[in-house]
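COURSE: Structural Biology Practicum
ASSIGNMENT: Worksheet 4, Part C
STUDENT ID: 0417
INSTRUCTIONS: Below are two proteins. For each, the amino acid sequence is given first, followed by its structure token string. Answer the questions at the end about the second protein only.

PROTEIN I
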Amino acid sequence: MTIKDTIRKYTNDLKFVTHIPAKEVEMLMMYLLEKNTIWLHLNYNKEFEQEKELGKLIKKRATNYPMEYIINKASFYGEVFIVQEGVLIPRPETELLIDSALEIIKTMDNNKRINVLEIGTGSGIISVMLALLIEDIKIIAVDINEKALELAKKNAVKHGVEDKIEFRLSNLYENINETNIDLTISNPPYIANDYKLPDNVKFEPSNALFGGRVGDELLKDIIDQTNERNIEYLLCEMGYDQKNPLTNYLQNFDIKSFSFYQDYEKFDRGFTIQFKK
């Protein structure tokens, strides 16, 4: 059976788990063949000899198992990152957190190195992108998940920025003794514990998703500890329904300014705080 006929055969099997079933069949074929889209399209009439292996992957994907875990990669901010089961899959919305950090860093003193702490680095996408985009930067990236830290290191090496990032096992600020941090950035767990996840998200690690009974407990802990450490800037991703409770919570602090931003769907998705120093 040709590549073209194979795509047609299996597209129907994925129509209930994705809005691009044919494209996903192609992605799985490219993964097996170790080829790109151009090669695949130029060879549509060539015989496909790995149908048995493809069938197994199609069956797995049909259970809502994430495509990124199957092909071990995801795109983020125009770059390709390694992903694996047990570590949160990058989301496009988190690119906006990078944008916010870049805007703040532009206002800082260009004559000195920028020191950044990332809390909950996961696959390392935030730290790696900041290291790629900012020349004079030093980042400490922490996580409580050793598997995540190992993956983050691989992504740093893949993108050639391992000399700019120190990966460290730490629960929030627990193992952070540095006093020269300019900015803390985090995409922490912020979903309420009783929230019913979509089927595809259930395969991702719960400790990277659920933030407590209400959902914003970890966010508040990060705000508290960042303030106690006398760090000027804090940037976090958050849940769409957390703007009002967090606004009220911030009234307890001596803050120079704070703002919220929306994601691509116009939901509230993150905040920036500048503490008074």
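PROTEIN II
(use this one for the questions)
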Amino acid sequence: MPIRVPEGLPAIDELSRENIFVMGRHRALSQDIRPLRLIVLNLMPLKLATELQLLRLLGNTPLQVDVEFLQTGTHRSKNVSKDHLDRFYRTIDDVEGRRYDGLIVTGAPVERLPFEQVDYWPELVRILDWAAERVWSSLFICWGAQAAMWHYHGIPKRELPGGKLVGVFEHEVVDRSHPLVRGFDDRFRAPHSRYTGNSRADIEASPLDVLAVSAEAGVYLAARPDLREVYITGHGEYERETLDQEYHRDQRAGLDPAIPRNYYPGDDPDRTPEVTWRGHSQLLFANWLNLAVYQNTPFDWLTRD
């Protein structure tokens, strides 16, 4: 089934070339079904790349999904045109009176700042409080997960002692009976790229369930028991070249970055990286959409006052 996105979004052409079914508004309105209404708070600087990454995952399920994009009105990205933001993005002022089946909050390159020093933190708090009341299930990624854990549960983020954690790491499933890991292998790989993290002990002391962990990267997946909050500490949405682009960007900036671990064949940055995480990432997003959103959201959720 298709995803429905705003007409004219640049990602549409690439998704169509990849045989991902993208439906226009007029055709969607002719179908006698209720699509899932999702909104993505895109905090990443390269917004077009993140749009494409997430839409690939959302478009790989049998559910019809209506996707909108949200930005922070108190901070404007320097890496995307104002025209693109004005055309395809809303702010919390635009959507505060609406309900959504699902929300995705991306990561952001601000993790080394205390939360309260992030210039859009008050607005993000407003969005998280709104989501708790008017979004059925929220999926938080990387710094977005750290921010939501702190706001909802007081779980602190901590500077990682070895510097930046970057690479593709092996994880194991902790609770095989949990619906979010249905169909997972016992072990799977996922990318990480961050300077901070949350301790397993802190998460386990909260109302959240720990579902998947890595000996090297820590907790990867956690969720509230009712699936209203789902937390991913890594970047399963990343494409083959994403960590490579980050590595060479940091090289050009003179930061002497570490080579991403378990990413390049032979740890050679001149070789094409291998994708070893795509299958589990697609399954995780499909499980969230199906089991946390579609099967749990009341049919009249969007029309409740």
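ANSWER KEY EXCERPT:
Q1: The two ends are 29 Å apart (CA to CA).
Q2: The chain has one domain: 3-158+197-239+278-303.
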